[in-house]
Amino acid sequence: MKPIILKKMMPFAVVVLGTLGAFATTSMQSASKSEAAPIYGYVAIPGNPCGLEVQCSDTGNQVCHLNDDSAQPQAFAKDSQTTCAQEVYRPD
After folding, report:
1. What is the side-by-side strand order in the sheet with 76-78?
2. Which residues pair with 86 in a beta bridge?
3. Is the dihedral of CA 76, 52, 37, 83 positive or negative?
């Protein structure tokens, strides 16, 4: 009796596991796309407009500052190899 139940339930179990795996994979892919992309901002130091590297984001509401302190200098992303003027935002 047990082998008959096992033989009939095995295909059903495989289909259920496959379906659950497909939904789990799809939900993980959509979650990673909604996150803001991390980018580097740079704070100017004397003699180098892109001197100190700061981790920022390309989307957000608050501008990115050195050490996440609004009293510190604002960070900007690189426009070219020598200039940093693109505004970046604080990572969430």
Report:
1. 48-57, 38-45, 76-78, 84-87
2. 77
3. positive
* Whether 40 contacts 54, CB under 8 Å: yes
Q: What is the pTM of this model?
A: 0.57
Contact by Cβ (8 Å): 52, 29: no
Closest CA to 56 of 39, 72, 80, 69: 39
Query: Is the CA virtual torsion 14, 15, 21, 24 positive or negative?
Result: negative
Per-residue pLDDT 10s for the chain (92 aa) are 677 777 888 888 888 888 888 877 765 555 555 556 689 999 998 888 888 999 999 888 899 999 888 899 999 999 888 888 999 999 87
